[in-house]
Amino acid sequence: MNETPQEPTGRPDEAPIDATRSADAATAPAAPAAPVPADGST
């Protein structure tokens, strides 16, 4: 049942998935990026 709606929803599903992935990628480097310069400053 989910397979049928997933096919046509795959395109729109990718859009929201990409947005979530982008946020995760921005948050991942943002967290380590903050402590990296902070440690160097100290």
Descriptive report:
- The protein has 42 residues and is an all-alpha fold.
- The chain has helices at 3-33, 35-41.
- The longest helix is centred in the middle third of the chain and has 31 residues, at 3-33.
- The protein is rod-shaped and about 55 Å long.
- The model has no long low-confidence stretch (mean pLDDT 54).
Supply database-style keywords:
methyltransferase activity, 42 residues, 90% helix, single chain, methyltransferase, 0% strand, 2 helices, 3-methyl-2-oxobutanoate hydroxymethyltransferase, transferase, rod-shaped, mainly alpha
Which structural category fits the helices and strands?
mainly alpha
Low-confidence stretches: none
Cα(first) to Cα(last) distance is 57 Å
Helix content: over 70%
Order of helices and strands: HH
Largest sheet: none
Counting copies of identical and different chains, the oligomeric state is single chain
Average per-residue pLDDT, rounded, comes to 54
Query: Radius of gyration, rounded?
Result: 18 Å
Q: List how many beta strands DSSP finds.
A: 0
**Beta-strand level of the residues, as a percent range?**
under 5%
The general outline is rod-shaped
Helical run tally: 2
SSE topology sketch:
Elements: H1 3-33, H2 35-41
Brief sketch in words of this structure:
The chain is mainly alpha-helical and 42 residues long. It has helices at residues 3-33, 35-41. GO terms for molecular function: methyltransferase activity.
